[in-house]
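Dear Dr. H.,

I hope your travels went smoothly. While you were away I took the liberty of generating a structure for the chain from your last submission, since the lab meeting agenda had it listed for discussion. I wanted you to have the full record in hand beforehand rather than looking at slides cold. The sequence, exactly as received, is reproduced here:
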Amino acid sequence: MRRITRITTVGIASAALALSATACGKSSSGSGSSSSSDSKSVTAAIAYDIGGRGDQSFNDAAYAGLQKAEKELGVKGKEAEPSAGEGDADKVQRLTALARGGNNPVIGVGFAYAPAIEKVAKAYPKTTFGIIDDTSVTGPNIANLVFNEEQGSYLAGVAAAKASKSGTVGFIGGVEVPLIKKFEAGFAQGVKDANPKAKVLVQYLTQPPNFDGFSKPDLGKAAAQGQLDKGADVIYAAAGLAGSGSIEAAATAGKWAIGVDSDQYSQAGLAKYKDHILTSVTKDVSDSVFNLIKSVKDGKPQTGEVRYGLAQDGVGLADSNPAYKQMTDVTAAVAKAKKDIVDGKITVKTAP
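The corresponding predicted structure, in token form, is as follows:
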């Protein structure tokens, strides 16, 4: 049985006060011995990014890693949700509460946790902190879990170009930040290498410090509809929860969508649209979370940069949709592109 304690943090929208309230649920002890009596016992915590658990994408992939650690390692898990419009002070409070509560490791899901982790990790040197998608903060007790998103996105570009009948495809980025520019760069390069005459439409939903582009499906839906109106018949969105809106728009129009981070064809919340999810660019966020938790439990915590690339299957392209597997010209092109990247014949750009 899954045992999770969920911590929900609600931010108070006041720049002057910068306060938040944290409500803690009841914690369940694992079967057998409790954490107080078993020195090997581990309670791991993850603090979610914008959109929270249920985004069918990035956060849910991290949650899957926590679930796997519970099942296979016997650890207990805690979750902490973000609040709308929160700032770094809210994240510092959230991570501090998790570390003070004895959780180890404490994992921040997303680059937005960088300033908070830099501060809290120094205050709790005996706790291992993980941060996904960021290398800007380092420390003896910080593990930077990062991915070659551009490589997986390149494969998506090849698939999009080969599957497109109109010769026009779309890319939707949630927020225009360097991380998401990596997705754009790889995708556009893959499209152009597969079909130099193809047209790539690019749109970002919001600009920092507005991060709504990762959390509001209606923004993704509107952007996708605009690209569909311009002739796009394959749309790839790297936009977290907002990406579900683009999937809905593409599916409703009878066109192809490409998912991101998780295998979105297999996500229950997107089941209504799955027949139109051609493939998904996957990041092994799940295993990165699991591996960090395991390293702490084993007494050899990961620290520094831990990178997951195409060669290690840390990124890739899902083939869950039977329709995709039947497109032998597409799958052959993707397989060749993957081999060429792994062999060093293709270097994928990390910026447009």
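Two observations you may find useful: DSSP finds ten helices and 14 strands in the chain. The two ends are 46 Å apart (CA to CA).

With kind regards,
E. W.
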